[in-house]
Amino acid sequence: MPSRGPTGAEEVLSGRRESASSSFRVRKLWDIKRQECLRYLRKPDVLMSLEHEIDARWPLANWGETRLLVAVSGGADSVALLHALLRLKKRVVGEGLQTASTAAEPSIESLVDVAHFNHGWRGTASDRDEAFVASLCQRLGVRFYVGRNTQSNAELLSKTEEQARDLRYAFLAETAYACGARYVVTGHTASDRVETVLHNLFRGTGLSGVAGPSLTRQLDRDLVLARPLIGCWREQIVDYLAKIAETHCEDASNADTQYRRNFLRHKLLPLLREEYGDQVDQRLCSFSELSEEAVLALRESAREYLRLVEALRRDAGRVGERGSAWLPALDHLDFAWVVVREGLREIWHTRGWKLQGMTRQHWDAVRELLEGKSGSEREASLNLPGNLVARREGAWVRISQKGE
Between 253 and 102, whose confidence is greater? Predict the structure, then answer.
């Protein structure tokens, strides 16, 4: 009899072994370079400019000749970010661009566009911010795009920070595609990261909730969200604007401690600094960075799990309907549940299923189904948030929208 060729699952397992050594070397080299960079940035006797810190974390070689869409609210962070990006381009690649003899070569300013979303929640103050950003862009010679909230007054009364973010990012993505930008750039700082860690921790989160916001993430299929100021502190921003003699808008609502983030900034963090010392912000930020490293490693393992699941699915002939996900019973694969759960989160994300309603109890119920502990081992089902149903079918679990 002819010898049996390797199955898809066997090929994946073989690839895991062959790539392990190479992956380790790549990760080790990245860790060394990253630690060298961070040691330089954190030297107390080195006062690096805001622009140098941006270039250290987000090298100009990655974006210097790429179109950027910079989100500018008019506040200190985003105004400083816009200036720093323009000055970086001019200092590092400006000469090559501006001395080009052909009209086809883009200028520095033509590669940077600005977007501003007017929520309209603060009346004339919102319009003032829009006018300030429009004037700033005209002075700097960059294209300006503005979006406005079209919600009714009743909807405005029920506004939330999450709703504001969703509206803003939808506008930014649409505008980025319209102007041909590869990156959407926002002014999140290390100070924002500390507040995010506390905010997510107190309202309930997993490891990923204290790991961000990260330097970059995928915003849409062809868009990357970048946060070049994520290693910079709010005090650096203020000093930078003073150095370049630039003004900015002050949002009066930022002082309103009814908003949770403002409560953290103005009430809780000062108390923590008083009790634990001025380094509490840096310690929280370091904790977030360590958490991010763990999450990145976890996601890599989850991708390996999903590749093996796909190979097993093909070998078993499990071709589900569009949008369905097939998962083998847990005893078929040697992966820890934390890795499997991260793989499930990725499945939810790629299929556009809502993760917000999935509590720890829901994930535990899915685990029991994959272990064959829910009802009959061969036939059991589970209703999940977002009109989803998970159904045990023999040694497999199929997750799909109800009715499919």
Answer: 253
Task: Name the residue among 227, 146, 144, 222 with its Cα closest to residue 181.
Answer: 222
Give, as one character, the DSSP assignment of residue 288.
Answer: H
Tokens of 150: 């079209």
**Tokens 């985003």, residue located:** 78
Say what the pTM is.
0.76
Question: How far from 321 is each of 215, 276, 399, 403, CA to CA, in Å?
Answer: 36, 55, 10, 11
Interatomic CA distance for residues 327 and 318, integer angstroms: 10
| Percentage above 70 pLDDT, the chain | 77
> What Cα–Cα distance (Å) separates residue 322 from each residue in 13, 157, 189, 398, 399?
27, 39, 40, 12, 11
Say whether pLDDT at 306 is over 90: yes
The burial class, CB within 10 Å (0-12 / 13-18 / 19+), for 48 is: middle
